[in-house]
Fold each of these.
Amino acid sequence: MKIQTVSATPTTSKGEDTGVFTIKITGPFDSSNTTLQAARNIALRTGSTKMLESLDRSIERMEIIEKDNEG
Amino acid sequence: MPVEGNRPKIVVTIHGIRTTGVWQKQITPYLAKQGLIPYHIDYGYFLALAFLFPPLRQRQVEKVRKEMRRLVELTGASRISVIAHSFGTYLAMEALRADNGELKYDRVVLTGCILANDFSWTDILNPARAMVMAVRNERATKDWVVSAAAFASRRLYWITRLRAGDAGRTAFEQKHPALLDYQTEGGHSEVHNQLKFEQWARFIAYPLLPPDILDLIIIELDALRQEVARAFQGNATLIRINLFAPIAGALRIVPGATVNMNYAPELDLKISPDHGATGTAFKQNTVAFVIKGDRGWGGNLLPGKELDKLHPQLKWVLSFPIYSKLRETVIAVVSIDGLETLPAPLQADRNSDEFKGTVMLPYPFIRDRISPYLDIAFRGEKAPETTV
């Protein structure tokens, strides 16, 4: 899985700082990915069991995050 | 109440030939149950011979078109939904085609459909034109009436000038994510029953969520709030969650689909795609994050009157797109936000795995536990019963 910060700096509109950061997540989920490991560690550390279950299911299914919205 | 902006949705029903549409009266309470406003078009008992005679048929199309245009003008609705049967399916879509673009449909249910099988749905459903938002075609396997219409079109075209088909029996040739196809064993009016009436009403009411699905989504959103509070080391009472969906040309909070939202002005938020974190998540299919700094929201793209609706203590917003595999597009956004303080993990370096891991963590939960309910609601179906 790749987790890419699309805009490391805030996105802009007409030169104005919009303050919106976007983070693109693409798949398939790969358990060796360091961001994914960080997410698992946070869930484990804080006892966020339901989010952890869903994360592990995504890894198990090798889910692919979908293509861009064109609508 | 299903809203178009702040107006209830209007549903036009159109009957077929050689009938005065008993089903239109029967379906009324089912539409009312979902908060929809029925409007029944009754053009009287229309003979089969008149249907085959082009000038009479075209006159009927024009009368229906004018009646719907007048309905739109009187109510101010930007779109109306339609449930049509048999010749009514022809009238509904020919009226749309004959109009100059002012008439637009929201959701359409076709039963005993006599439209041509090669009807160009991809053009009509194309997001750029969006003449219709979604269609549900109810076919019946033994519908001889639609076969007769197809025959009259194919073999007697030199007399009838009729462009029709048996899409109500053998389906449309074109496929589209917003064109749903259902098949039933039986004849021309087989689907005029209580179960179908309920499904159609739920289908048309979308994105309003019926109570059975809304209850399940709220349970999941509240569980998510508790989980996020733990993972973000924040106070759950300061974290809120909203489900946004496109309603009347803007992203609005789906009525009732909120957790811990106690500031009334925010419930009326109207966000354009690509504006703010919610609009950005929707438009770009990305996780989007925005913080209120010392100088406010920076050059935030939300228009001033929408910014004024925000809770004065709102500090951050983290928005997640919900992508539907069924419809091949982003259909909604779950926005998690927080009041007063920015949780410590969200203050980390934005290129660090710690930051990215924190913000992506709710995403699989949303995809896994909330997204499926929206597809069920879109189809007008009921939530699966859980066994205890």
Note: Chain B has a mean pLDDT of 89.
Amino acid sequence: MAANPPQRKRIISDQEAENISRVEELAYEIKVSEVMTSELISFSPEIKMYEVLEVFRQKRISGAPIVSPLGDLIGIISMEDLIRCLIDKDLDSAINKYMTTNLFTILPTDPVIEASKKFVSTNFGRLPVVDKDQKLVGMITKGDINRGLLRALETDYQEEEIRKYRASHLFEDIESDRTSLILRYQIQQGDFDIGGQASSNIKRALIRLGASKQIARRCGIAIYEAEMNLIIHTTEGGVLRVEIEPHQISIDAYDYGPGIKDVGLAMKPGYSTASDAVREMGFGAGMGLVNISRCVDQMKLESVWGKGSRLKMRLFLDSEHKNKESENQKS
Amino acid sequence: MINLATIIDKLELKVLTAEKDFSQISVKNGYTSDLLSCVMAGAPNQSIWVTLQAHNNIVAVAALLELSAIIITEGATPDPVTIHKANEEGITLLQTEQNSFHVVGMLWELGIRAEK
């Protein structure tokens, strides 16, 4: 990894852009008061530098404010100041000899982006947070900002997880003798541009509802083929209706014409009535219905020439049920 | 396993979609066909698909099958809407002037095989 560091890419992908803008948004949303440290270790102005050293060592801190008995901010002492003092071998001197008094402060009500800007422009590692009356109310470091942003991003993530969790418990949370969720999609004839949209939406819904990846994939393929059939072969499009139940998914694709002349022939692998234009796009392999039958547990195609077609598909979600069904079919 | 960065590099492919860290995208298998239903039936997930089709629906197919990338051959060029859709779905579109046979041969030499 170290030998071959990844090159910095100039173009940012949508995914990355999304994350960046969310962090930026948060930097404007979150207030300094939400991320600052308010339980402070502070020094009084008459304290000696060796005491500062001792406190830094014991409390594992690298900087602290100096405040007057009235709570007014006087200065800041940092590790750098302490090092200067150590080099001078001057630990017996008072803190006010080494502290920084040229202070940049920030208001607790400012967004953290303001603090970030000050860190960049001043090169300081920490900023005192003072209220309107110049009283010290906290300290903020770059680390505080990072932690605050990460915490907020984590909350975002948890919210999405909760949404997924809620969706996946939909069927358990609602009590009825038979609960089902019905999704309907109107498919336009000849609309290749949005072809595959319904199947990808349904696949996403299934994943959210807690379906396994395998089930979602099988459903996705079957519905895609049915969707493309409606786009390619119908006179005025049709409807995709998906009914999701805890134990099964039933998919209905129906249209109002022209219908299939010979259903048996249509089911034959490689048989297609697609036009040359459609074939040029890679459709019309004559494998659509074959793919569907491979992906679903039950399939029934009914059609009346001149009227329309109805393709019913079913996937069973619990294997016990599935085995029973296939036995029933055999007998 | 071979990653997408190696393939892009060795085959000198043009990346049509947004740049990402292609070294993190692994390619398990390869598949080629210009018939979408055949792809639906035959392309395993995380595979790379070689086709000369460049229209919108290749993205839908690749997204449903969770393919690693599509190599569009013979200089066929998808329109901006297709590229936009591919970015949305996180599908990488790659382009080459070479024909499919050539590309598949190169992929095979890199050690990419059809699913057994």
Note: The radius of gyration of chain A is 34 Å.
